[in-house]
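Record minuted for completeness.

…
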Amino acid sequence: MRKQYHILNGDSLRQKFPKNIDGEIIVARECFVEGNVKGNNLEELFASRAKFLSQSYGGTEQGYYEKVVSEFQKIKNINYDSDINLWFEDDLFCQVNFWFVSHLITNNISTTNVYLIRPKSHNQFGFGGLSYSELNFIYKNRSILIELEKFTSLWESYQNDNMEKLMNTAMELEPVYPFILNAVKAHIERKPNGGTPGRPIQSLLSIMKELETEEFKPVFKEFSKRESIYGFGDLQVKSLFDQIINNR
């Protein structure tokens, strides 16, 4: 039997990962959806990310290499005759990490045995809302990834802020992977346009007005319902929320 590798988007799924599913677990502990992603190579990218995340959320740059980069290195070391199972959801947070992982696989591993495992429907809870038996079910019904190079292209377009190419690739993938287009549109709508601050901040402003509050907790809860496509955690939303408060 071919060796199984399971690449998970974050530690929360790892904590509830079914013990009867064999294979080595690798955790993508990044949030490429936020901050600088420039870099001519992996070394430059990781150096930039280590600096950004340590300054934004605490921790040390060394800790980034120990906890994050070390996991990505495991992906680069996967044997070519293995099955790689990618457990990623449909929201933008997960998708950008998924595109980066696809980039790593394409450029480091000679294999066609790459599978995508995702919840049957998109919601704010994702894998977290699935039971033990449901996680087993979606694993047994995994789908092989075709055109992996196009997912790599998505990462390169995202990294270079090439919105036109990003959209074009998403549209090419839509017949088989329609969820990609929703994430790409959500990303494009993040950008300020015509005097508006971009969809996430505009949504927060609307929620704060409707709820008549500047208390973060209820605003975050409602944002997570309305804008689950972004997959933002409390840290990402709090950063946007603080921008609004500080600008008032």
